[in-house]
Amino acid sequence: MPIQRKYWHFYFIEIIMQVKDCYKIGFVMKPHGLKGEVTISIEDDIPNEIESLDKIFIEQTNGLVPYFIENISVKGSKAYLKLEDVDSTEAATAISKSAIYLPKTERPKSSRGEFYDDEIVAFEVHDNEFGLIGRVVEVTLAGSNKLLSIDREGKEILIPINSPFIESINKSKKRITVSLPDGFLDI
Predict the structure, then answer these.
(1) Which residue, among 136, 109, 111, 1, has the nearest Cα to 56 in the 3D structure?
(2) Which residue among 55, 92, 159, 164 is least enclosed by CB atoms within 10 Å?
(3) Total Cβ atoms within 10 A of residue 176
(4) CA distance 95 to 155
(5) Pair 84, 32: CB distance under 8 Å
(6) How sure is the predictor about 14, in pLDDT bands with cuts at 50, 70 and 90?
(7) What is the Cα–Cα distance from 58 to 121, expressed in whole angstroms?
(8) What sign does the CA torsion over 4, 7, 12, 17 have?
(9) Where do the domains of the chain lie, and which CATH numbers do they carry?
């Protein structure tokens, strides 16, 4: 979809934006109304100033495409957007079920001892007794609990983030230190 805003030069800079340089803030659920508005679902750890955003990146087959926001209304974990150049139900349907991203450079820095889920992907996980367990593949949700999904030689190990097992997370070393109970890795 072409970008028609005066700032077309941003298009050439931002079209090369890659998913690894961005973080997911939600996804387009479905059209809302008849004039191209869409309903989006919002992730938990997005910036509080979502209503002040002027653009988002929507994942499409050719990569992340910037869309400029005309209007946004946030209602809890949902928002209703009107995007430039999305002027019909058909155009809104075309972007439905697509992930929405923002550049990581625009995300507020996490506080000491805190982290965003995607920041710890690929961190090494070490246990005080067993040594290297593996690398974090992703952070998953199981109900209201967040779990580290760790690849240990092709086997998935799940460790609750809010548990006594995690001793420290060192962002600069990209390392998580845990103290697992006996038999935990055998489950």
Answers:
(1) 1
(2) 164
(3) 25
(4) 35
(5) no
(6) very low
(7) 22
(8) negative
(9) 8-106 (2.40.30.60), 117-181 (2.30.30.240)
DSSP E strand boundaries for 6-143: 22-31, 38-42, 55-60, 63-75, 78-83, 99-103, 124-127, 131-142
- Which amino acid makes up residue 52? S
pLDDT in tens, 43-100: 876 656 778 889 999 998 878 999 999 999 999 889 999 999 999 999 999 999 999 9
Separation of alpha carbons 174 and 184, rounded Å: 23
Confirm whether pTM is higher than 0.85: no
- Altogether, the residues listed in the chain come to a count of 187
Token pair recorded at residue 83 = 């995007």
The tokens for 36 are 């191209």
Using alpha carbons only, how large is the chain's radius of gyration in Å? 20
Residue 10 has which token pair? 């941003």
Longest CA–CA separation in the chain, Å: 62
Residues 6+ apart with CB under 8 A from 12: none
Tokens standing for 172? Answer: 């600069």
- Rounded Cα distance between 154 and 86, Å, is 43
Name beta bridge partners: 71.
82
b/e sequence 27-49, b meaning 16+ C-beta within 10 Å? bbeebbeeebbbbbebeebbeee
Cα separation values, 163 from 18, 36, 154, 183, Å? 33, 44, 24, 16
